[in-house]
Amino acid sequence: MIMITKDMYVADIIMMDRGVVPVFMEHGLHCIGCAISSAETVEMACMVHGIDCDTLLADLNQYFGATETEGQKA
């Protein structure tokens, strides 16, 4: 199972599955494609944008858990 942590880079998470972009956007991270995302960790992005890191991480991990479960059903 993929486990997203606050130390992971935003761009790396998106490269794992581009379908995760709406999760970031729902939390107010709209500059997903900007150059900073490749050098910004989840924690850094949350601090800059005033987002609750624990809530975002929970939603990201829920997304990846759900996609992994769906992939096993296929």
Give a brief rundown of this model:
Helices cover 57% and strands 0% of the residues. The protein has 74 residues and is mainly alpha-helical.
Number of distinct beta strands:
0
Give the integer mean of the pLDDT values: 89
Q: How much strand content do the residues show?
A: under 5%
Uncertain spans: none
Structural class: mainly alpha
Instruction: Give the total of domains.
Output: 1
- Give the overall silhouette: globular
What is the count of helical runs? 4
Estimate percent helicity: 55-70%
Q: Encode the helix/strand succession as letters.
A: HHHH
Rg result: 12 Å
End-to-end gap: 16 Å
The largest sheet, given as strand count, sense and whether it forms a barrel, is:
none
Q: Could you explain the architecture of this structure?
A:
- The protein has 74 residues and is an all-alpha fold.
- It has one domain.
- The protein contains 4 helices and no strands.
- It has helices at 10-16, 21-26, 42-49, 53-73.
- 18% of the residues are buried.
Considering the chains and any ligands shown, give keywords for the structure.
74 residues, mainly alpha
Layout of helices and strands, plus pairs?
Layout: H1 10-16, H2 21-26, H3 42-49, H4 53-73
